Structure prediction request, 865 residues.
Amino acid sequence: MWRFLGVRSLQAIPVIFVVITVTFFLVRAAPGGPFSNEKAVSPQVQAALEAQYRLDQSMLQQYFSYMADLLRGDLGPSFNFPGRTVNEMIFQGLPITAELGFYALLVALIIGVLAGVIASLKPNTAQDYVPMSLAMVGICMPSFLLGPMLVLIFGIWLDLLPVSGWGAAPGDKVLPSITLGAMYAAYIARLSRSGMLEVMSQDYLRTARAKGLPERVVVIKHALRAGLLPVISYLGPAFAGLLSGSFVVETVFQIPGLGRFYVQAAFNRDYTMILGTTTFLATLIVAFNLLSDFIAAWLNPRLRYQFQKKK
Amino acid sequence: MTDLKSGLLAHFRAGILAVSAVILLSACGGGEPQLTRVEQGNIDGVLHYGNGAEPKGLDPHIVTGVPENHIVSALFEGLVGKHPETLEPIPGVAESWEISPDARRYTFYLREDARWHNGDPVTAEDFRWSWMRLLTPALGAQYNYHLFPIVNAEAYANGEITDFAEVGVTVLDPFTLQVDLREPAAYFLQILDHYSAYPVHRATIEAFGDLSDRLTPWAREGNLVGNGPFRLTEWQINSHVRVEKAETYWDADTVQLNAVVFYPTENLVTEDRMFRDGQLHFTAEIVLDKIPVYQAEQPEIVRIVPWLGSYYYMFNTTRPPFDDVRVRKALAMTLDRDLLVESVMQGIVDPSYALVPPDTLGYFPPKTFEYDPDAARALLAEAGYPDGEGFPEFELLYNTQESHRRIAVAIQQMWMRELNIPAQLTNQEWQVYLENQDNLNYDVSRRGWIGDYVDPTTFLEMYVTDGGNNKTGFSDPRYDEIILREAPATLDRDKRYELYKEAETILIEAMAILPIYTYKTKHLVDPSVKGMPPNIMDHYNFKFISLEPVSDQG
Prediction:
């Protein structure tokens, strides 16, 4: 088991390294630069600006000094927000994005698992088709459509919830969490339905029923545990996706999270900020994928048995 | 295994509980009669201001954008300010000033009760040091050229001299500052209310690093010391910036607001919803499609007024066929601006036939041509392209944005219909587009320009020979002579404006640029906001603004 963990973790390092290197050279290859401005500046000013951010050095020199700083955990100063460091901005945006992602995941799990399980109990009936069709709509509906729709209904017509903000007024976290969670809820619904269907036909469930256990116990105690395995392995990538993919929701709801920094950085050619957030999110995605591999391995008796046998 | 399962189940249960609690809580919250942020703000004297975008910084010498300008001008004050309505100079830190008869020497008498937010007096030395910082080459201040009218300022900024004593800024005594100009610059007082000329607090900057270090956090919440009517109290990036009334300000009695909160409202639709939900007193923009609805239903909250900005196309006059003035004129004369403004822009801009927007501090630009497709066809035939025959296919470049595309499509149609010439539309992302303009790598390109200060110079100086913002290849010795020498030396405003008209006529006769329209600013303003008259600079002095709740008829 530990060797498996070790090998998987080591495999992650070159992935992250390649991501950083490719991003470093790609952002610099993009036309324009962090200081191109509609209003022309004198060559002296341009030179002074470049010197302050080490852009006067050769590309390779810049790369090595960036990597050296990175190893010390220093992501450098932001080009676009003078006086702020990338580290500081990531750590300011991350808790908000993580909180949003966490609530969205909760929404996704509750709605998704409920819908999936309900649908799987009576396959190919209305009880199956209705929630699964809704899930299909959920997957297809982009958050820049769902968000404004929810705002229009609950924020402006019914006047129940605030239309924007994060933690500024009671209830302003509800709509963004639902908007962000909806797509994942739909996906989880489909995953848990197929997982459950597969499990329901297994021999051990027939045994459980034969013992005379009520259907409720059969489903909740016996079927759910195995049926939700695909959902568990999806949780890691889902959470990473929620963290890196929340910028639309953050823009629609005026939330000061990481996603907005990321998009702004790309438009402004904020080299250090693009690199910093990319590196950070890449690490996070790799880490969550690893984590869900581990959890899946740990939950799955067959896999666990293999590990034990190898030892 | 049982442990794990019950753990997981417990987790789900906890999750369900948490989410239902959140939903319940919010539902309860919504049920109670609650004041909106605007209503609460009217009681507390807090203005909620939609500021368009997140400020990149608050260091007056480094920032370059409009959202930054709004906040910085609340936090700092220059020697002179602007009258909120007429935009004529009014006393700021300087109580009064004298201008020598040859208009080359300005003497400013500073008020002795002007204070920094930490209580230090604001002195003439503060201004000398601040301007030295702005001009220090290593700082890389993009707006340092604003002070170039001062003797030797340009040489210092370019590193040709290193002793600031040679620059024409002299401290006569702690409260008297003398400024010598290399030539009279009639718009100099206007420039002094640009944020690049504001004073900065030396001790604070030096506490965090060298004067030329852009990267120190001196201009952050908790650190920044300003001298304006408001002081910085909160800055949560991508959330809000809050400034509160500074009791140290010399004119604190005039200041009615207790605080202003600036919101980075990048998404226009979100901003609109925030306004409708009572979260904002003032929006930075109005969603184009909603203007007719607001105008019909609540005309009192809609504010659409002329802005000091021009929208036009540039010709690359170094490339055939646009090196021929007849071709450029033909293209300009086939543009039906009235139709364009009405149909594409829904009447929220003004058609334009020159570069400088009308009524720029009393200046009105000349009108030297009209919409005349017949004359345009004749010109084109004269240039060797009768009925557009043999006219090469060319690119019309604009930066990626829906409104630019709509205008470009309309203009493409007009050219095709009237002149039978094919324009190829090319959109590019902002940075790419800028780079191609800089390298004269285009045929025809969209351009927008917003003035930095209210004087025709802020537009006309772009087109001097080899000017950094020229980007067209246009060059005319008489034009250069007027803009660089004659007009700045002319003290009489009417005479100066006549010279500008002559210069602008040269520019438009040569048709290096193709005027399309002049901008208007579009805001939604809550009826409770008072003391915020519209002006062409879209500049609001927060010190004069107050909030008076309008009694509700319902």
